[in-house]
Amino acid sequence: MMGNAYPYTVQNWASDIALASSKGLDGFVLNMGTESWQPGHVADAFSAAQSFGSNFSLGFSFDMTVMPCTSANDSTLLQSYITKYSNHSNVLQFNGKMLISTFSGETCQFGQGSVDAGWTVTVKTGMPPVHFIPSFFVDPSMLGNYQSIDGAFNWNGGWPQTQSNTSFATDQPFISALAGKTYLGAVSPWFFTHYSPQTFNKNWIYDFDNWLFSSRWEVLIQNREQVPIVEVITWNDYGESHYIGPIEGSQPNSQAWVNGFDHQGWLDIMEYYITYYKTGSAPSISQDRIFLWAKLYATNATAPDPIGPPKDANWAEDMLWAQFHLTNTADLTLTCGSSTQTFSSVPAGVSKQKLPLSNDCNISANITRSGSDAVSFAPAGMNFSTSPPSYNFNAFVAASPA
Fold first, then answer.
1. How far, in Å, CA of 290 to CA of 320, rounded?
2. How many domains does the chain have?
3. DSSP secondary structure string, 96-155?
4. Number of continuous H segments (helices) and E segments (strands) in the chain
5. What confidence tens digit (pLDDT) does each residue in 268-301 have?
6. Rounded to whole angstroms, what are the CA distances from 268 to 23, 89, 241, 287?
7. What are the tens digits of pLDDT across the range 18-37?
8. One domain for residues 62 and 101
9. Strand 97-103 and strand 57-63: pairing?
10. Is the domain of 270 the same as that of 318?
């Protein structure tokens, strides 16, 4: 999210690129707006990527909820980015063409007679070769009407839009409608936003239960032959609580539910699944690890918070979500106060377990073999409470040391 990178220097970009690359990501897609400072920051990002080497790419996702697109002149800003970076050594490519995406844009006509004509003139006519994969929020059956697109990004596919588990049923209509064009799949770990009507007026959750990040990756891996590209939503969207990178840059007034809720514990889970997705084979586990995440406050508790609980708050279970990476068979334990569960003789590999949370307690987990702890993990600050200071449904994420 470029808007959250306002204070970034080249060194900030370099640090993020190095961290992301080390976890298996092949690039960043930059969510672009219209602020006058953004072109300079994009140049910094490409400079950092170029210094890093040829293995990390940068692409563009034009945010059409903020970028104007009614007149022919509105094409100019988008075209300036495409023209400037189309031949850059680090530009994101697919099938030998510069990959361009959007957030929204399904009503943009750019002064032409239709949406399809508008996008054709903007990204195709007289432009460098572009592989255009927008995220149009339309019924997928309409995708066949757009000759300008080379594929589609199903942004909402990252989360169940109802109280349900993630499944490939949300992807299949897009794939069918695209009829062989490129399908870009979405994966995301969480969604909670808590803005008042006086600010962004966004206060809701999507269903993030049932190990969403891992479960969504597993769905995409099972169908990897139909999903040639996956986009992780997001590296740094703090306002919607689905960031996986460090909390840095400038937050969009989301400090109340973001500060103290680090998500980097998800990075090593992501690395495991990225390898699995790229190779088609489950990676071997070389070290016992414990990954834990949960919202820290009871769903039905009352908080002194004038904004009120988020829409669909009742979807969220009071549950600890755990993922164990095991080198050999082991006994697993999850504990929070009087709530405890032991899972015996769990085989080597990845094991997902959960623990109900009901009383104020401190969370811990263990991997045990032959009566001795191989890993004992009690993350500092991971404490469940029935007396929330606000309606904070963000996730606290922790990973045992690598």
1. 12
2. 2
3. TEEEEEEE--TT--TTSSSHHHHHHHHHTTTSS-EEEE----S-GGGGGG-SS-SEEE-G
4. 8, 19
5. 999 999 999 999 999 999 999 999 999 999 999 9
6. 7, 28, 18, 12
7. 999 999 999 999 999 999 99
8. yes
9. parallel
10. no
